[in-house]
Amino acid sequence: MSAELRVTRLARPLSPETEARLKSGIQSCSDVAFAYLAQVQVPERQEEPGPVLFVWLRPAALSAVHAALNLVCQAVAKAITDKTFLDVVVLNSASELLPTLEQAGCLLTEVDREERQRALWAADHPEAQESQQEPPRGWWPF
């Protein structure tokens, strides 16, 4: 990525009622393990920062990302009833952002603590992911 992202907490937080609806809606999406709500700016591409919902999908949901993302977007649409624009990003494909989001302190919800801990560990140990790209082969070819 050539442009550096600036990730912070929302400068203009959602109302407590809206944030509660959003959190509840995301928690009801069975494919979401955890989510962050942050303010993001790409200096070379945006004049103003904007709110972004980062969702981490459970591994089983990765084979049906479209369906999982549809449910997340429906939850967002039900929660945010004003004209607030909110980008949604599947964090699994941008796991290098996990430490930045953690540092910003913008965790919205954690449905699956073990999956979050696993994802954070993997983000801190990219060499372990590289070594697991091809599983070891056993004696039997099945």
Explain what the structure shows:
This protein starts with 5 loop residues before the first strand and ends in an 11-residue tail after the last helix. Helix 1 runs antiparallel to helix 2. A hairpin with an 8-residue loop joins strand 2 (32-41) and strand 3 (50-57). The protein has one domain (6-126). The protein has 142 residues and is an alpha+beta fold. It contains 5 helices and 5 strands. Strands 1, 2, 3, 4 and 5 form a 5-stranded mixed beta sheet that branches. The protein is globular and about 40 Å long.
Topology:
Elements: E1 6-8, H1 16-27, E2 32-41, E3 50-57, H2 65-79, E4 87-90, H3 98-104, E5 107-110, H4 113-124, H5 126-131
Parallel strand pairs: 3-4
Antiparallel strand pairs: 1-2, 2-3, 2-5
Helix pairs in contact: 1-2
The secondary-structure class comes to alpha+beta
Which residues form runs of ≥5 with pLDDT under 50? 133-138
Q: So what's the overall shape?
A: globular
Order of helices and strands: EHEEHEHEHH
Biggest pleated sheet: 5 strands, mixed
**Fraction of residues in helix:** 25-40%
Quick description:
This protein has one domain. Helix content is 37%, strand content 20%. The chain has 5 helices and 5 strands, in the order E-H-E-E-H-E-H-E-H-H.
